[in-house]
C-alpha cells in the first residue's frame, strides 16, 4: 500500500487515523481491531508530534506505510526526530490500573493502550529514523 | 470536535461531538472545567464521539477529581462500545456511571 507523508502537527491526527482506518479496511480487519489500530497509531503519532517535534521546536513529517507479510498487517510510522523508544518507559501495571482515579498517575496510558491494542508492537532506530511498527494478525 | 454546555436546573450537561484527541482535548478540557466550576452534577453526553485517545482519558480524570472534591456526581451518556473497551482496559470504567440516554442521566443526577 502506498506510503503517505503527513506534517508533524496535531492537525494531522485526523488524517493519520484515517490512513490507519483505510489500511485496516483494505485488509478486512473487523470493527474492534480497526479501532484498536487507529488508537495505537494516534497515541504513537501524538508522542512523536508533541515530544519529538514540538517540544524541541523541530519541524518534521510522519511517514506511514503498510504491507502484508505472512498473513500479518505491518503498519510502519517513521520520523526523523531524536531517537525515542516508546517501550523504554515503564508501563502502568495491574496495580496502577486498579488504583482509584484520585491517586492514579496518568503517564504511560497511551503506550499501554498501543501495546494492548495491537498483536505486536516493535520499535527500531534505523538509518537515522525512528520506526514504530504495528502488527495485526489477519484471519 | 464541538462542545456545548446545557443547563438543566442544577445539572450541567456537556455535549461533545467529534473526535477527542491531542488536538481537540484542550478545548474539551476548557469546557469541562467551566462545567465543573459551576456545577457539581455533570452529565457528559458522548454518543456522537467516535474516537477518544488517552488525551480524552486525562480530561475524564480531571472531571472525576473536580467532581469528587465537591462530593458531586458525574454520569457518562451514550459511550460507544469501543470507548467503553478502552475505559475498561485502563480501569477507568469502575469509577463512572454510564447510561444510554440523557433522560436516564438526568434521573440519576437529580437523585444524587
Automatic annotation (TrEMBL), chain A:
Query: Which keywords accompany this UniProt record?
Result: Kinase, Serine/threonine-protein kinase, Transferase
An example molecular function term from Gene Ontology annotations: protein serine/threonine kinase activity
Keyword Transferase applies: yes
Please list the residue ranges annotated as the Histidine kinase/HSP90-like ATPase domain. Answer: 6-130
Please give the name of this protein.
Anti-sigma regulatory factor (Ser/Thr protein kinase)
Q: What is the protein's species of origin?
A: Rhabdobacter roseus
From TrEMBL, chain B:
- The record places domain STAS at 1-109
Tell me the protein's name: Anti-sigma factor antagonist
UniProt xrefs under CDD domains: STAS_anti-anti-sigma_factors
Which Pfam families does the UniProt record give? Answer: STAS
Q: Name one GO molecular function term.
A: anti-sigma factor antagonist activity
Write out the similarity annotation: Belongs to the anti-sigma-factor antagonist family.
Amino acid at each position: 500500500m502506498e506510503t503517505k507523508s503527513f506534517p508533524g502537527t496535531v492537525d494531522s491526527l485526523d488524517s493519520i487515523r484515517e490512513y490507519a482506518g483505510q489500511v485496516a479496511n483494505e485488509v478486512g480487519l473487523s470493527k474492534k481491531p480497526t479501532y484498536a489500530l487507529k488508537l495505537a497509531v494516534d497515541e504513537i503519532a501524538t508522542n512523536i508530534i508533541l515530544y519529538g517535534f514540538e517540544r524541541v521546536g523541530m519541524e518534521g513529517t510522519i511517514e506511514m506505510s503498510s504491507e502484508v507479510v505472512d498473513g500479518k498487517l505491518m503498519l510502519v510510522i517513521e520520523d526523523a526526530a531524536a531517537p525515542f523508544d516508546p517501550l523504554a518507559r515503564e508501563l502502568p501495571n495491574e496495580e496502577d490500573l486498579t488504583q482509584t482515579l484520585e491517586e492514579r498517575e496518568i503517564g504511560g496510558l497511551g503506550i499501554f493502550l498501543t501495546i494492548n491494542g495491537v498483536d505486536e508492537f516493535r520499535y527500531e532506530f534505523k538509518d537515522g529514523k525512528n520506526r514504530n511498527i504495528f502488527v495485526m494478525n489477519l484471519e | 470536535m464541538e462542545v456545548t454546555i446545557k443547563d438543566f436546573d442544577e445539572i450541567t450537561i456537556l455535549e461533545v461531538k467529534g473526535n477527542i484527541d491531542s488536538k481537540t482535548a484542550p478545548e474539551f478540557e476548557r469546557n469541562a472545567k467551566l462545567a465543573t466550576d459551576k456545577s457539581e452534577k455533570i452529565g457528559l453526553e458522548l454518543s456522537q464521539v467516535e474516537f477518544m485517545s488517552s488525551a480524552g482519558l486525562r480530561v475524564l480524570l480531571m472531571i472525576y477529581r473536580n467532581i469528587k472534591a465537591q462530593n458531586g456526581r458525574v454520569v457518562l451518556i451514550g459511550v460507544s462500545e469501543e470507548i467503553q473497551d478502552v475505559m475498561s482496559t485502563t480501569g477507568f470504567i469502575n469509577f463512572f456511571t454510564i447510561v444510554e440516554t440523557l433522560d436516564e442521566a438526568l434521573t440519576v443526577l437529580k437523585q444524587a
